[in-house]
Specification:
By secondary structure, the chain is α/β, with parallel strands linked by helices. The chain has helices spanning 55-62, 69-72, 126-132, 142-146, 150-162, 178-189, 203-209, 241-244, 263-268, 285-298, 314-322; strands at 3-5, 14-19, 30-35, 43-53, 85-94, 105-109, 121-125, 133-135, 169-173, 193-198, 213-216, 229-234, 248-256, 276-277, 305-310, 329-333. Strands 1, 4, 5, 6, 7, 8, 15 and 16 form an eight-stranded mixed sheet that branches. It has a six-stranded parallel sheet with strand order 11-10-9-12-13-14. The chain has a two-stranded antiparallel ribbon with strand order 2-3.
Length: 336
């Protein structure tokens, strides 16, 4: 097996990784020293500089909701190293790899079930890398790029599917999270009128992102708002179509980051041809990354970072994210 290795990589050296053997939050997650994996002929080796701990990772780590264990392992996790997004560089390539070269600065999102990026190095098959990795924007840092991934990709998927137009109205519930803060900026780019729902202490942030109207959810019930919207985005998954239905215009669309509570309505509402519940999913991660990168380079998207943790304190990061009060993104830095 031949590989093309970067001068930055000593294949005999060790790496640090966050490793678990059972479900839990944070469970028995701990930092261990492992051998750096050697890429197969069809794989790339990625040196990770930054990642995030996000809601997708929390679900994978905890194994909840239980339905997701159909994909991650019924009784014990299939993957000991998780992590869904990453920024860094290509450290080595297998002999058959054509699309990447050592030293490429990249960012990527491996999907909601993870790709093993909570480690200083991990490998991906070139076929998957081609669908989930993009060259980093040149005008941001690795840490800023990490904050452009998981939540932003989910939001981009919705925007690209729903295709908002100037003059429409949207309400974003949970406007300060990784998904919500992305929705606000993407909608502003399309000149949509935005009502953002957040707490009072975050009003300056949400205004800076582009919100036209703000509702303090601690003071007022946003579902009693008198405006009618083309879109209602529940970016925190804490509401429902039934509660938000009256906020929608005749052919308005409701979507939520929590599929379970609204799943039945996804199947039923399209039959009536009026107000609908839709879940865009992530049909094309690459398309979302291209969209995000273009906006970053134009200055129309600035990722929100709450806190940064070194890899050694990733368990603390999980506990903080699981508490449900993070603002934007929580970054994990990999370099010791």
């Amino acid at each position: 097996m031949a590989i093309h290795a970067s001068s930055l990589l000593n294949l005999d050296s060790k790496m640090k990784a966050a490793v678990r053997s059972k479900y839990g939050l944070p469970g028995n997650l701990s930092i261990k020293e492992l051998e750096i994996p050697t890429p197969n002929d069809n794989e790339v080796l990625i040196r990770v500089h930054a990642s995030t701990v996000n809601r997708s990772d929390c679900h994978v780590l905890s194994g909840r909701p239980l339905l997701m264990r159909l994909f991650t392992g019924l009784f014990e996790p299939r993957s000991s190293i998780i992590g869904s997004d990453f920024t860094g560089e290509i450290a080595a390539t297998g002999s058959n790899v054509q699309l990447f070269k050592t030293g490429d600065k990249i960012m990527g999102f491996g999907g909601g079930f993870g790709c093993g990026s909570h480690a200083q190095y991990f490998t991906l098959p070139e076929t998957k890398a081609a669908k989930t990795i993009l060259a980093m924007p040149v005008n941001i840092t690795y840490e800023e790029a990490a904050a452009c991934l998981e939540g932003a990709v989910y939001a981009a998927s919705g925007i690209l599917q729903f295709k908002p137009i100037a003059g429409q109205k949207a309400l974003v519930y949970g406007a300060t999270g990784a998904i919500g803060s992305s929705y606000v900026q993407f909608l502003k780019y399309y000149q949509v009128y935005i009502t953002a729902v957040c707490s009072a202490e975050n009003i300056p942030l949400v205004k800076s992102l582009g919100a036209d109207k703000i509702i303090d959810y601690k003071k007022d019930d946003f579902t009693k708002d008198n405006e009618r919207y083309d879109f209602v985005f529940d970016a925190v998954g804490k509401s429902s179509f039934i509660k938000c239905k009256k906020l929608l215009k005749e052919k308005g669309i409701y979507t939520s980051s929590n599929g379970a509570i609204n799943l039945l309505w996804v199947l039923i509402t399209p039959l009536f041809g009026k107000k609908k519940v839709c879940f865009p999913g992530t049909k094309s991660i690459k398309e979302g990354l291209i969209f995000i990168k273009a906006l970053v380079e134009k200055g129309n998207f600035k990722p929100v970072i709450d806190r940064k943790y070194p890899l050694q304190k990733i368990a603390e990061a999980y506990e903080y994210v699981a508490a449900g009060q993070k603002i934007g993104n929580v970054i994990i830095t990999m370099d010791a």
